[in-house]
Amino acid sequence: MASPTPHGPPEGPDASPVPPDLAKLLRAQLEAVADEVEAEVRSQVPEYARPADGTEHRQLRGGVVQALTLFVDHIADPRGPGDAIAATYYELGRSAALDGRSLDTLQSALRVGGLHAWRLLGRTAEELGLDSTVVSALGELAFRTVHEVAEAAAAGYAEARPHSADELERRRRRLLDLLLGEGPVSLDAVQDLAHAARWPVPRHVAVVALASATEQRDEEREGAREGTREGELPLGAGGALVDMESRPPRMLVPDPDGSGHFGGRAFAAALRGRPAAIGPTVPLVEAAQSLHCATRALGLMGRGVLPRQGVVRCADHLSTLLLHGDEPLLAQLAARALAPLDTVSEGQRPRLAETLLAWLLAGSNVPDVATRLHVHPQTVRYRLRQLEKLFGDALHDPGARLDLILALRAEELRSHRQQKAGDF
Predict the structure, then answer these.
(1) Whose CA is closest to 97, among 110, 106, 88?
(2) Long-range Cβ pairs for the range 294-299 (8 Å, 24+)
(3) Is the overall model pTM greater than 0.70, yes or no?
(4) For residue 5, what is the DSSP state?
(5) Which residues of 236-258 are buried (b: 16+ CB within 10 A; e: fewer)?
(6) Of 102, 114, 253, 423, which sits 20 to 30 A from 120 (CA to CA)?
(7) How far is the C-alpha of 122 from the C-alpha of 113, rounded, in Å?
(8) Stretch 148-153: mean pLDDT, rounded?
(9) HSE-CB for 328 with a 13 A CA cutoff
(10) Are 306 and 315 contacting, i.e. CB atoms less than 8 angstroms apart?
(11) Average pLDDT over residues 359-388
(12) What is the pLDDT of residue 206?
């Protein structure tokens, strides 16, 4: 670890000694000077301008006080060690790296703070009437002090840098687990974790469930962290939180209808042909609901109820998702509502079911039904007479009509799925 190298005023026949009481005087003013330096840093360095949490405030305040203390200690004893203060800045550098922050921010704060502290020292030197040679020596000592603590911070930053990406990924994984957990989500807890993970908190999110592909796991985990093939976007681009180890793999996209918009080809390229289901956009603390919907849609994709390939948006298939939300209950509804069709022949049933659904959806308009089914209107009327005999007044009861639409729609989806399986 770097530690400050003590520096004293220039030595030689023309050197002027630093007044021995100056260190005591400056130490008495240290807290007041620290207040001014801290305020200057907050006003000049944007990263420190926003309201800070308790840890950040203590780090900034402690850093200012420690640097000023090191300077005063050097005046009192130019050859004295500064290891403790160097250790403070070493840890500040490490924290910056582990939090995913740039070292430039800390170095900017040191430059701004050091310059302002020197202005305040110049004011004190003028009030004391110090000799210009002494002032020059003090100036050299002040800026060497800044250099020493900057070196210590850089050493800490360099030591922690190789581990910072892994640490940031762990923090983001914990944040994702919190957002997608089963229990209620506290916005305060989310904001605390998001701050530690350097993740801007959005108002709305959507969750994407990805089809599992075990053989691609290692490649895609690396892609989520660093990038993908040349010309492709990483899954974690745009601030998405990604967990390729969960089953199914999942990613949380911030502001999906704004800056995080699913970019069509770019999004598909990042998926590398992997089927995926995009849950509905929800408030941040309701992210688990979006995951639940996306996972259900992914399951229906695997069964062929929804398209097996590509990207399926839950918002485009809400009725299908609702229908299959409780499949045993749906089976009971279908069995009861469509029981009259059990009395017809196996060849008649599909035609009558198709005609009944088209008639219900077309608002009982026979010509529209004929156009939709590509048959003659007289054929439709013939089938409707059969259906009237089977269902009677139920065809004109609003509640019964709704049950019929739900049951017939579920049967239509099942028929299409069986046809696709047969073709395959």
Answers:
(1) 106
(2) 294/207, 294/208, 294/209, 294/250, 295/209, 295/248, 296/321, 296/324, 296/325, 297/209, 297/321, 298/209, 298/210, 298/211, 298/248
(3) no
(4) P
(5) bbbbbbbbbebebbbbbbbbbee
(6) 102
(7) 14
(8) 83
(9) 0
(10) no
(11) 91
(12) 92
